[in-house]
Every structure is written in C-alpha cells, then in structure tokens.
C-alpha cells in the first residue's frame, strides 16, 4: 500500500511517498506561481517507479494545502511536523520549525501528539524570508550563509527585528566595512533570539538532551543551528532532510487513514 | 455601479433574529435629527463612561469607538484610517482613534462613506461637549481633547484611581468610592453648566435601574450559554454589545435585550444550538479580545467546521459590569462601582477568578486570544491570561489581527492557526 504526503510551503513544495511504513522517495521543488503539488508528487512517484494510480491516500499540509485538489485530507503543518519528527526521532519533545513564512515551536507528548504550539507574530522577523532578504542584501547565496557565519570572529549586533529596518542596518554595516561573516552571525543571532523567545514560552519542565529537534529548510543552515543552541542552551538534533519532515508527517497521517 | 471593495473579508452568520444594525441606524438617525433641531445636546464619550448620567439629563451619548466598530464591520475603516495616516498618524496607533480622526479630518466626505452608509444615514453628529473617564485606556482622554479642539467644544476628563494589586472587588475602601462620586458630581456640574439642563437624582435612579436591568438580562443570557448546546454564539453577543456600550440606561435597550433573552430561553427549551442544524457541538471555546469587526466570519463562523462555538467573550462581559448589581437607591456609588473598578484599574486577582469561573462553568475546552496590532491594552491583558492558561494547562491559540483595519491582518495565517488549534484539541 502506497501513500503520499505533500507539503505546499511558501518557498518550496515537498512530497514524500511511503510504502508499508517506509520512505520510498521524496522530492522538493520551488513553489513558484500556481503551486507545484501535482508536479512534485509525480516526480517523487517516478523515483519510486510508481504512478498516481498506486496511491491509496494523499494528505496535504502547508499554507497551500487547500489548493491540492487530489489530496483526500488537509492537515496543518503543526500536526504534520510533530508526526514526522517523532517518527524520525522518537525522543522528540520540542520542535523548532523555521519555515519561509513563519517560525513555530511545537511541544509533543511521548506518543508524538501535539500538546501545545506557538507561532511568531505576523511580521517576517524570525522566518526564512528574513534570511532570504539578508542574503540578497549581502549578495550571497542563501546556502552559503551557514558556513560563512562560522568564520565570524566578532558577531555584530542587528538590533532591529523589522525585516526592512534590519536590511538597512545590514547595508550600513556593509558600508562600514564590517566583514560579511560577522554580519551573517549577527543576523543568525537576531533570528535565534526571536525563536528562543517562542521556545521558552512553551517549555514546561527541564528540557532533556536529544529532545529538541529542528525541522524546515532553515535547519540546513549550520550557523543558524549554532546560534539557536547558544540561545536555548541545549543541543539541537537536525534530521538528515529537515525540509521534508512536514511532508513525511502528512504521509504518515495518510497511512493511518488507510488503516482507520 | 458600486466600486468593488478593496478588502474582501466576511460577515459571520448570525444565530439570533434581532437586527442590530437596524437599531444602530435608528440611534444615529435620531441623534442627527436632535442635533439638527437642537432638541438634545450630543456628548461624545470614550467607552465605559457613565452614560447613565447623560440619559438622566436628556443628553445623547455618542461613542466614536462604536462608530469605528461599525466602520470596521462595513469595511470602510481603511479609507478613514488612510486619511488619518496622511495627516501624520503612525500606522501602529489605535485604529479606533485613527478611524475617527480620519473621519474628522475630511474622511466624512469620502465617496466610500456615502456609499457604505446608505444615503449618509449613519453619520456621527458633531458634538456639543465631550467627556472621558480615565479608566481603561490612556489614549481616551487625549482623544477627546483632540475632538474638543477640533470642534471647539468643552471637554471634561474624569480620573479613576489605580487600586492596589491585592484589592478584592468586594472590599474596595470607602475613600476610593468617595473619590469616584466626587468625579461624577463634577461631571454633572460640567453638564449643567454647558447644556443648561438641570440634574435630577431621581431620574438618575431610574436610568441606573434600567442599566442594572440591562446588565442583569445579559447575565441571564451568559448563564443560559452554559447549556449544551450553547444557544447563542459569540458572533451575536459581540454585535449586541452596542446596547451595553451606547444604550446603558435607556428603556429601548432593556426592551430589545428582554426580547433576545426570551428568544434564547426558547432556544434552550428546544435544545437548539448556535451551530448550523446537523452540526454537533464538539468544542466550546472562549473568545478573548476585541473581535476583528472586518472579518467576523473568520473569527466565529470558521470554527463551525470543527463543531466549535464561542460560548463566552470577556470583551462583552466587560460592559455589563464585573462589580455586581447596581443599587438605584445609591446611583452615584453604583456607577462608580460599575465604571471605575474594571480592568486595568482593578486587580489581577479578580481577573483570574473571573476566568477560572469561565472554564469550570462554561465547559470551555480552550481560549482563542486575539492579539490586536494597534491595541496594546488588550495585548497586555492577553499576556496575563496566557500565563494563567499555561498554569492550568488550558489550550489556547493567539491570532494577530486589528479590530478594524484589514491591512494589519493576514486571514490565511489566522485560519492556519485556528486549524492547528482545533486539530490539537481533537487529538
């Protein structure tokens, strides 16, 4: 029995194909205009030598989940990230998900069910979009930011939490001749302090080692992870493909639906 | 052909038969008529002012905040707010204020106002005097001073004491009451001086009795909402707040409220809930904050797909008086107790008690908190309440919105949060 989970996010659309409880394939494409849900599922199915006729159930998640007509069920990314992270790392109790449009902290119980969650307010600070804008201002690729920031010798202060104001601040730091790596480290710290605020708002007891997991595309940024670990004072576990955790959770829910 | 609205947001489906807008419209028409004829003076107020005194003296209270809520519901507030911002108001300033400021500063003549107000019937008549009680919001008295300057009319500001955080509502020291009474007496002198009308304590006793009757009817409605299924949802209660805010002390408000109470009782007898026929009541939630008047559909109707209904709203209850019954034989003292000792002049302890009672009595599964972009007062209250919900492990979700300005609002984000909240409740 084969099922699929689709995560239609602001920046990328992800698909995961499950077969008998195992991940058979996954795919990630840029969302772009008009959504790419069908395309990404087709690509993931092709990788697994399957076709849409083989799928018993499809669950959609992410901001664009309502615009996935072939999905039989829509579930929010909160629930899906919880399900996916707990499947990959059963010790998960707290999830930090920094996505393109927002950041979230999700608290799970031992069974992997969502107990509580918090999301950033509606401004872009503390989101992947903030990083994108800053990468653009620094004229570097988003993917380069993590490694570059590790070379920083003196993190600069980015005091503004407003994306537009922070961009001006970054531009003035560039004009002052401050090395890019120090500016990037400052950008990471600015986001980390916002996310840490959300994190601590949901901490109820001592946070155990190996219980904090980060999901979403920003988890691939090693500099961001380092800044976050400094802010929250505990090691963060990052799954091998952090971007597909939501789609995986959606696929796991699709699988449960088949057994109901 | 009417121009298409810039902001497409929705109206909630009502569960009661009363047409609130009809009464709102009638109120504004009568006020404009009185202004034209010079038969009754118009006094502008900020919300939670002792308007029972106005009714006792034949003065018409008008509330620019209520007007802003109507503009929000009719989705014309952004046009007025834009005028205010063009005159220098910052974007994060209270949108109720900006709505009115924009109206004064030329917004009144905008084409969208004429269209939306249906032949210009709902128009704020110019004030003869203005008043504000410094009880809830620090902007209130400044707002009324601006209005006074604009229209060149007399202004009066009453002060309310800040109580010690441990003070219980049932044990307020006499000197606080005496201070409040002295403020009301000064207000009465101000009204007598500037309107030429004579104050009559017996008449005040009558309006206080009517106000108390109105509050009591609302309290009976709140009690009936404890029943499952809840007979009336938050979408209706929030509209009914007009009678509490603007007509406390009038016979009409009592008559309308009595009709509503009868309808609610009848619904309880028939076990008819607020949810659409065929939808079982699965979740009972409490609504915290001023609603986004421009999108009541998302605030209240959206949750119906989860079998959820709002059974309690702190915002509405704030207007029917937390401090107990009013005593018409001591009208001034009663008004002080009703208006002077409310959040935020009163205690956190009292606030906590109020909310724990909500949870146990109403069978509330969780709270939906509306963090208002331009109302820091409500956001402060929400921060306090969230700490309490955490303490008692009660689920809650926070949505970011503005009460009237859809430009400060992301409907998809709000719906996503509501979806996650109800999924969480169902798990």
UniProtKB/TrEMBL annotation, chain A:
Say if the entry is tagged with keyword Metal-binding.
Answer: yes
The yes or no answer to whether the keyword Isomerase is present is: no
Keyword line: Iron, Iron-sulfur, Metal-binding
Q: Which GO terms describe its molecular function?
A: iron-sulfur cluster binding; metal ion binding
Q: Gene3D superfamilies under this entry?
A: 3.30.420.40
Q: Which cofactor does it need?
A: [4Fe-4S] cluster
In this protein, which residues make up the domain named ATPase BadF/BadG/BcrA/BcrD type?
Answer: 5-254
Which CDD domains does the record associate with it? ASKHA_NBD_BcrAD_BadFG_HgdC_HadI
Matches recorded under NCBIfam families: CoA_E_activ
How is the quaternary structure described? Homodimer.
Descriptive protein name: 2-hydroxyglutaryl-CoA dehydratase
Q: Which organism is it from?
A: Candidatus Methanolliviera hydrocarbonicum
Its organism's taxonomic lineage begins at: Archaea, Methanobacteriati, Methanobacteriota, Candidatus Methanoliparia, Candidatus Methanoliparales
Automatic annotation (TrEMBL), chain B:
Please give one Gene Ontology molecular function term for this protein.
iron-sulfur cluster binding
Which Pfam families would you find in this protein's record?
HGD-D
Keyword set includes Ribonucleoprotein: no
- Cited Gene3D superfamilies: 1.20.1270.370, 3.40.50.11890, 3.40.50.11900
The alphabetical list of record keywords is: Iron, Iron-sulfur, Metal-binding
PANTHER family for this protein:
2-HYDROXYGLUTARYL-COA DEHYDRATASE, D-COMPONENT-RELATED, SUBUNIT OF OXYGEN-SENSITIVE 2-HYDROXYISOCAPROYL-COA DEHYDRATASE
Family classification: Belongs to the FldB/FldC dehydratase alpha/beta subunit family.
Q: What is this protein called?
A: 2-hydroxyacyl-CoA dehydratase
């Amino acid at each position: 029995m084969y099922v699929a989970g689709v995560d239609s996010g602001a920046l990328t659309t992800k698909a995961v194909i499950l077969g008998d409880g195992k991940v058979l394939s996954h795919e990630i494409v840029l969302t772009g205009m008009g959504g790419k849900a069908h395309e990404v599922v087709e690509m993931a199915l092709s990788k697994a030598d399957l076709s849409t006729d083989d799928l018993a159930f499809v669950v959609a998640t992410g901001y664009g989940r309502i615009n996935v007509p072939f999905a039989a069920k829509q579930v929010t990314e909160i629930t899906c990230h919880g399900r996916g992270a707990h499947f990959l790392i059963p010790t998960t109790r707290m999830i930090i998900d920094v996505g393109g449009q927002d950041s979230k902290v999700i608290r799970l119980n031992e069974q992997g069910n969502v107990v509580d969650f918090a999301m950033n307010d509606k401004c872009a600070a503390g989101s992947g979009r903030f990083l994108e804008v800053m990468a653009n201002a620094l004229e570097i690729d988003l993917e380069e930011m993590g490694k570059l920031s590790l070379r920083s010798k003196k993190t600069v202060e980015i005091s503004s939490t407003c994306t537009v104001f922070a961009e001006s601040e970054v531009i003035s730091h560039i004009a002052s001749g401050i090395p890019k790596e120090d500016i990037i480290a400052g950008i990471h710290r600015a986001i980390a302090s916002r996310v840490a605020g959300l994190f601590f708002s949901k901490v109820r007891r001592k946070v155990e080692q190996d219980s904090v997991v980060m999901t979403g595309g920003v988890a691939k940024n090693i500099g961001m992870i380092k800044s976050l670990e400094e802010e929250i004072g505990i090691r963060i576990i990052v799954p091998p493909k952090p971007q597909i955790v939501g789609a995986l959770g959606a696929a796991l829910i699709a699988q449960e639906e088949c057994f109901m | 052909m009417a121009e298409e609205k810039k902001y497409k947001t929705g109206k909630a489906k009502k569960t009661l038969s009363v047409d609130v807008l009809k009464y709102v419209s009638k109120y504004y028409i009568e006020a404009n008529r009185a202004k034209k004829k010079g038969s009754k003076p118009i006094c502008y107020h900020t919300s939670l002012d002792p308007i029972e005194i106005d009714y006792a003296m034949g003065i018409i209270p008008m509330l620019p905040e209520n007007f802003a809520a109507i503009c929000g519901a009719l989705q014309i507030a952004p046009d007025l707010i834009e005028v205010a911002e063009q005159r220098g108001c910052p974007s994060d300033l209270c949108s109720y204020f900006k709505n009115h400021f924009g109206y004064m500063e030329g917004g009144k003549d905008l084409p969208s106002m004429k269209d939306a107000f249906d032949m210009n019937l709902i128009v704020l008549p110019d004030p003869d005097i203005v008043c504000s009680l410094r009880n809830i919001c620090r902007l209130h008295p400044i707002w009324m001073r601006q209005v006074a300057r604009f229209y060149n009319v007399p202004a009066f500001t009453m002060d309310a004491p800040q109580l010690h955080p441990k003070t219980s509502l049932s044990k307020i020291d006499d000197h606080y009451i005496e201070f409040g009474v002295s403020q009301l007496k000064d207000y009465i002198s101000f009204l007598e001086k500037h309107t030429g009308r004579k104050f009559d304590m017996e008449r005040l006793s009558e309006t206080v009795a009517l106000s108390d009757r109105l509050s009591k009817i609302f309290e009976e409605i709140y009690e009936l909402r404890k029943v499952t299924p809840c007979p009336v949802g938050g979408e209706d209660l929030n509209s009914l707040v007009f009678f509490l805010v603007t007509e406390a002390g009038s016979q009409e408000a009592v008559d309308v409220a009595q009709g509503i109470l009868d309808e609610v009782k009848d619904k309880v007898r028939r076990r008819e809930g607020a949810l659409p026929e065929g939808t079982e009541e699965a979740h009972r939630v409490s609504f915290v904050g001023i609603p986004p008047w421009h999108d009541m559909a998302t605030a209240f109707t959206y949750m119906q797909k989860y079998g959820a209904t709002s059974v309690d709203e702190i915002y509405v209850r704030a207007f029917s008086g937390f401090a107990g019954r009013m005593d018409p034989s001591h009208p001034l003292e009663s008004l002080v107790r009703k208006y002077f000792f409310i959040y935020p002049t009163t205690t956190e302890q009292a606030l906590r008690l109020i909310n724990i009672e909500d949870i146990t009595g109403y069978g509330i599964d969780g709270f939906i908190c509306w963090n208002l972009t331009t109302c820091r007062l409500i956001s402060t209250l929400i921060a306090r309440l969230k700490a309490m919900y955490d303490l008692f492990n009660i689920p809650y979700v926070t949505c970011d919105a503005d009460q009237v300005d859809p430009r400060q609002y992301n409907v998809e984000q709000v719906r996503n949060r509501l979806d996650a909240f109800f999924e969480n409740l169902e798990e």
